[in-house]
Amino acid sequence: MQIQIARNFPWRWGLWWLVLPNLTFIAMWPVGGPGMVLPMAIGGVIALLLSGWSHHPARTMLAVALFVFSLMFYTTMSFNLEPTELLNSIEFAGELDPIQSPEYLIGGLLLAASLVALVVLGPRIPPLKTRDHKILAVVLVLLLINADVFATATTLGSYKMRAPVGTPVDSAIIQNHITPSTVKARNLLVIVVESWGVSSDPFDRALQDHLWSPGRWSERYEVMRGKSRYYGSTTSAELRELCAVWSGFKSYDFDNADCLPQKFRAAGFQVEALHSFNGMFFDRAAWYPKIGFERALFAKELLVMGADDCSNSVFPGACDNDIPRLIGQRLREAPGKRKFLYWLTLNGHIPVPSDRELGTDDCRLGAAEWRDKYPMLCRSFELQRQLADSITAEIMKPDFPDTDILIVGDHMPPFFKRDIRMRFDHAHVPWIMLRSRQRANQRLSELSSSSSGRFSAAHAAQDAAIGR
């Protein structure tokens, strides 16, 4: 009897209601991706409630709506975005160039094919007419949900959209006690590095430690390293560091903000922000001034100032490697004015394409076997190497102004592939604090010169006495 029920079941119903709206996510099961229990459960319940509904344009429209809802949920989970942040990013999706990423291109084609099939097959999908068929439909929904739970179980803890209520705020700024009164250097530079996470794999960690080795800067800076907790996306990281809150930019009360740029501005610092992408994306051009920045320089301004154009990327904009040089120029201007500069990097966004313009077309880091197995990870580390090199080249110049520098990650890199994602700490991002020794070194130099002068004068007096 069970075999007969299964044979008579209209399997096109399951294909249309359950498989097509989730086909892309199902295809990702062997690779990775976030869990989709909630949208699958919602879609399954709606499909069961309407199981006896014959073809009607409204039925197809509802199925398409479920498809869109699932896609939005998947995207927000993948990048730890708040739903309202996703709506904002869709508004400016024209600024992105997903064609530069084969992964996005393939995923987009599969989504488009699923949507077309959903619309075309709609009129041919029969309703469920018997109680046995409806019971079997319930079993199919439960099987789909449980299959997703099983397929995504290992990476479940790596998706952190928001902090649990009551979680104490943690940040590199807080851990290093950075305030206008504690910054002893002339200036402060805070750099938030896109997709810079804490490697948990020993091989990766050794490579990352080499790329960001304290020995690069110890001659001129007191170097401290650590890690802090993170939740959410890049804008959440910005508010974490600048405003000491767990919040997305859409839910933060900017009218009552009490943020670091405001405090430094009130203390007499010149306060500026730099970001290599379009200022309209995630409304940064609107909310940067609200937290205290006097001026914000985005891709358009940075390109005019002389930065190269890194347009062959999913996020086209000014090249990160040129920004440290421009920061040095900004710090050297008006030397009588203390400055607080904030820089959010861009090029590290995942996925990182293989591109000559970005210098990621021939990654030579690590061992050959590692490079062949994890080419995307190698390219991501190559961008870190370039970034660390460009920062070092500028801040170690003899005429680089007296500046304390904080470098901190925003969130772990949101790799889709499970085997790469599991090579990172799911809860923390790294930070490096460089406290300038310039004033201390100048003081030592002055004391040395003074002592040398007194020593020479004493010898001259002694020689004169012997001569007499």
Question: How would you describe this structure to a colleague?
Answer:
It is built from 19 helices and 9 strands. It folds into 2 domains: 2-156, no CATH class; 172-436, 3-Layer(aba) Sandwich (Alkaline Phosphatase, subunit A). The relative contact order is 0.14. The chain has 468 residues and is of the alpha/beta class. The N and C termini lie far apart (128 Å). The strands form 2 sheets. The protein has a 7-stranded mixed β-sheet with strand order 2-9-8-1-7-3-4, sandwiched between helices. Strands 5-6 form a two-stranded antiparallel sheet. Helix content is 47%, strand content 11%. The longest helix has 30 residues, at 438-467. The model is unreliable at 455-468 (pLDDT under 50).
Features:
seven-stranded mixed beta sheet, 468 residues, alpha/beta, single chain, Alkaline Phosphatase, subunit A, elongated, two-stranded antiparallel sheet, 19 helices, 11% strand, 9 strands, 47% helix, disordered C terminus
Brief account:
It contains 19 helices and 9 strands. The chain is of the alpha/beta class and 468 residues long. The model is unreliable at 455-468 (pLDDT under 50).
**N/C terminus separation:** 128 Å
The ordered string of helix (H) and strand (E) elements is HHHHHHHHHEHEHHEHEHEEHEHHEHEH
Largest sheet: 7 strands, mixed
Given as residue ranges, the uncertain stretches (5+ residues, pLDDT < 50) are 455-468
Topology:
Elements: H1 2-8, H2 11-19, H3 23-27, H4 37-49, H5 57-78, H6 83-91, H7 102-121, H8 131-152, H9 172-175, E1 187-193, H10 202-211, E2 221-229, H11 234-243, H12 260-266, E3 270-275, H13 284-287, E4 295-297, H14 299-304, E5 309-310, E6 317-318, H15 323-332, E7 339-344, H16 368-373, H17 375-395, E8 403-409, H18 418-421, E9 428-436, H19 438-467
Parallel strand pairs: 1-7, 1-8, 3-4, 3-7
Antiparallel strand pairs: 2-9, 5-6, 8-9
